[in-house]
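Changelog entry

Holo records now carry the ligand SMILES as an explicit input line rather than a separate metadata file. Below, a converted record for zinc ion, shown in the new format.
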Amino acid sequence: MVTDKVDTKLNEMIIHDLLLVPIHIRDDRHVCLSSEDCIRLFGNDVQLTVEKELSGDRVLYREKITLVGPKGSIENVALIGPFGGQTYIELQMADRWNLGVEPPVKESGTALAAPTLTIVGPMGSVVNYMNGIIMGRHMHMDADRAKALGLKNKAFLSVETRGNQPVILKNIQVTINNHHYTEFHLTGNEAEALEIESGDNVKIVL
Ligand SMILES: [Zn+2]
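Structure line, unchanged by the conversion:
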């Protein structure tokens, strides 16, 4: 059937587009809160102040929080909104020494090493649960795209860099959001080593 062929072609084109993910170089540590955790940290009637508008409808708030780990703490950690979905913490690689946490690593099977951090705000604190901590390169994906690609929150995938000398990067963890943005994040050092820039794309290898 001609229509079947057209449908298949269309489907392939849509899937191809869904597999391309823009790159953003991020070196800053920050936290994004669930609505419940925001209330626990800042109280019921909280109205946070937007300091700066960021890409993908996100904002940087003026308010800060403190992260406490087994070995130490870091104050004045940035909060990125809008809130909602699950709480996650993005750290710089060096933070693990100061805080005493190890990044989640994919084990054989399904178990993941899960560091624990406490987030402290002016009105209370919350212990961050399993797999809420992101270090090094990772991907954020909007829920619609994740559904279309059959990916679950915290899934691992591989991506291929573009350009003259493509490289496959494995064990990239995906954090799914309800905010309509899909981005591949990596540090400036990693980007330099891979000769890629903000605005380039990576392609998901399923
Ligand atoms: Zn990120």
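Spot-checked after migration. The helical segments are 2-19, 35-42, 95-99, 143-149, 188-194. The first strand starts at residue 20 and ends at 25.
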